[in-house]
Amino acid sequence: PLEMSAKKPVPFLRQVVSVRKKVHRDPRFDDLSGEYKPEIFMKTYSFLDSIKKQEKEMVQKQLKKCRNMEQKEKLQRLLNRMTQQEQAQKKQQKLRERELSLKRQQRELAKQGKKPFFLKKSEKRKLELAEKYAELKRSGKLESFLNKKRKRNAIKDKRRLPSQKNL
Asked: Where is this region: Disordered (predicted)?
């Protein structure tokens, strides 16, 4: 046993063997957890999509049955959040697929012996915008989208112009 001074009162719980302090580690920043690869992550946790879909259907059913206005608003907000998350996930997936297809094209060109050409950020943005317009045209919503954009730009232009009071 450890020798202790008689001048100090003895603590109630005395540590005879020193206990090692647990070191907490964050798997997001630790090398032991491996590297984050979104493709592998999506494949591993793809079962969550079906669970989310079931939960969304349950919320929709509850929303139809619900009579309480406060509860109804709460459920509506939850449903909106779920749909927004779903749309964001689809958008991210499309972006990933587009990047993968560009990489595949570059690999093919490299196999043929050509020098790889990497798109700038602005070029990627232009391609994304062109794809968005093509999608809107297919769905028939292009005209309404362009009208909204024109109105928005007109309002911005009016704001930038000097007011009549100053003239």
From this structure: 141-167
